[in-house]
Amino acid sequence: MAEMKRKAFGRPACLKEVEYHYCPGCSHGIIHNLIGEVIDDLGIVERTVGISSVGCSVLACDYFCCDMVQAAHGRAPAVATGIKRVWPDDIVFTYQGDGDLAAIGCGEIVNAAARGERITTVFVNNAIYGMTGGQMAPTTLPRQITTTSPGGRDSARDGMPIRVSEMLATLEGAGYIARAAVNNPKNVINAKAAIREAFLNQLEGTGFSLVEILSTCPVNWGMSPIEAMAWVEQSMIPFYPLGTIKDAGRQAHAS
Amino acid sequence: MDTSRAFLNAERCKGCGLCIAFCPKKAIAAGSRLNTKGYCPPEIETNGQCTGCGFCAMMCPDLAIEIHEESTR
Amino acid sequence: MAEIRLMKGNEAIAEAAILAGCRYYFGYPITPQNELIEYMARRMPEVDGVCLQAESEVAAINMVFGAAAAGARAMTSSSSPGISLKQEGISYLACAELPCLIVNIMRAGPGLGGIAPAQGDYFQATRGGGHGDYRTIVLAPNSVQECFDMTIRAFELADHYRIPVLLLGDGALGQMMEKVEVKPNHPEMIPKPWATTGLRGRKKNNIVKTLILTPEELEDHNRKLQDKYRTIAALETLWEESLTEDADLVLVAYGIMSRIAQSAMDLARAKGFRVGMLRPRTLWPFPMKALKDIAKKTKAFLVLELSAGQMREDVLLSVEHTRPVHFYGRMGGMVPDSREILGEIMAILGKGNG
After folding, report:
1. Is residue A14 domain-resident?
2. A201: three-class secondary structure by DSSP
3. Which of A53, A227, C108, C192 could cross-link with A96 by S-S, CB 3.0 to 4.6 Å?
């Protein structure tokens, strides 16, 4: 009897055989894998350019097989704009954390979305600054303890968190905005679908697309990876609801 | 007959435990030996119940798990 | 067939950039260079180029970073406060060895300052300006024709050496109108195999990055940059000398101040004073050797700047304290006339050697 072996699930072709530097259980790895699968599924690696940003994912430019550019902190949407205007047929995506996108880069992301820049942003929201050791982020939750809110985020002193997806959805140039999570298999499947939809929006030119992905930072949250997944469910999702926030152009189709 | 099963590359594993937590068949258990990086990878297929559903591979941040299909005719 | 046009400096720079093959302009309005972005907004669509008004000078320099990484000839322009905002981006461009043009039409500072001309950004321009050990080529036009010619040269230098080039003008040059010979130009677009264009059949992906965490590797990269700067210093230093052979006093000035200095020199010569001038046309690399050579023949220097004295320090370094280096400057947007400079010349020479 003949035996045929086939790899039904493995490393996406557009991710290099390099080990990630991320902490054990960090959501960045899961998200990189989903982006890799979407690029493979859509067959676009030859004309994709990714832009990594500053934060834990600064080394992302070493993980993907497509051309990659490393942007200054917060500036990835501007760098992406420069590349997309030179190569409008390229698929250009940025990969940004919450400090990069919602603090120092807030001007850039809002204006890229307002201009309807045909780029895709994958926004990794883990409610903390990971790379620099756990400081408060614009998306840190009320009462959440960080190294710069050691008593917990106090809305009187620190203000309230920013719901980036809802904010960007108000802009006419934004074509597709969705929020997902990767804290269990069902959410991972939905996150992949959202990322795919965002890239399809870019392929069809319907404007700026962004997927906000609620993610874990076990080390800086002071939790085990599985506890961190539970915290996303219990604390983050109620504040940052999942789903399609805006779908302005493309007819969604079952893939 | 087709069977799918999960295979772990222990050297890529960082012992995060997500695969153990999300296996619907409880087919993954904590391991007892360290890899060369000092992490403790789990043991897959401990109870013969693995269906190759892929949840473990999907939740693994480090692409340490592959799902292989075997076809026998 | 060359065409003679009456143009403002700001406009001449824009037109020259387009003739140099630049098709990507990213900028933000700031006085006194708004004519440049406005000219680009009208002209770029005519050549199927992109003129994008960014949300800030920071965004604009990062758009230049992206376009340059993608292999295009790209540029931005601003004035002093906006150039301060761009410093991080310029440091990144220099580290990543991305070619581009950055135009600074200087105004008086510090702070928000004034909108009248000044030369207070010399240190910022020639000492890198941002963090880290790097240089940018700094070109200093002193006429609208030079604004035009140097812009074309800037793109050639930028591409050839893979370095950001700074064109340092000022509000007077940007605003004044002079005749420009607009010569046809056929830019030689060199291949850029390192650019992030998308793989498109290329086997190995290109990565443009500036993070180099291993000290040994980062030192190697820095050595490579320093070697490049030494080559540029040896080959690309430009200056102009007038009447230095027999001069007792040599004026040193650049940009608009050099036009005033030229007039003052002419007035002084008419009165019998032996005055010459050296005008640096590249501020980095600086004509150190030329000044050192002149120091052997002349008795003193008078550095003239619209600042508290910044290029003065490079002149001091160049002549190695072998001759007195006097200084006269105005700040805040005040621009002296040639008789004021003549007064300084006569005060120095009237006392003997100064």
Report:
1. no
2. helix
3. A53
CATH, residue A45: 3.40.50.970
Domain boundaries, chain B: 2-71
Residue B72's φ and ψ, nearest 5 degrees, are -115, 135
Q: CA-to-CA distance for A246 and A241, rounded, in angstroms?
A: 13
Task: Please state, in angstroms and rounded to a whole number, the distance separating the CA atoms of residues C329 and C335.
Answer: 9
Closest-CA residue in chain C for A53? C209
3-state secondary structure C214-272: CHHHHHHHHHHHHHHHHHHHHHCCCEEEECCCCCCEEEECCHHHHHHHHHHHHHHHHCC
pTM to 2 decimal places: 0.94
Q: Would you state the pLDDT for residue C143?
A: 98
- Inter-residue contact C114 to C144 (CB < 8 Å): no
Q: Check CB contact of C209 with chain A, cutoff 8 Å.
A: yes
Strands C239-242, C275-280: parallel, antiparallel or unpaired by DSSP?
antiparallel
Dihedral angle, C-alpha C296, C298, C299, C303, nearest 10 °: -110
Counting as low any pLDDT under 70, the low residues of chain A are: 1-5, 250-255
How far apart, in Å, are the Cα atoms of C281 and each of C57, C240, C241, C260, C295? 26, 7, 10, 16, 19
Contact A143, A222 (CB under 8 A): no
Residue A207 corresponds to which amino acid?
G
**Each residue of C203-246: pLDDT tens digit?**
999 999 999 999 999 999 999 999 999 999 999 999 999 999 99
Q: Chain B residue with minimal CA distance to A31?
A: B61
**Contacting A residues, span 49-78, partner chain C, CB-CB under 8 Å:** 49, 51-52, 58-59, 61-62, 64-72, 75, 78
pLDDT of A138-156, one tens digit each? 999 999 999 999 999 999 9
Q: What is the CATH number of domain B2-71?
A: 3.30.70.20
Phi-psi domain of A101 (left: phi exceeds 0; alpha: psi -120 through 50; beta: other): alpha
Of the candidates A50, A58, A215, A37, the one whose C-alpha atom is nearest the C-alpha of residue A121 is: A50
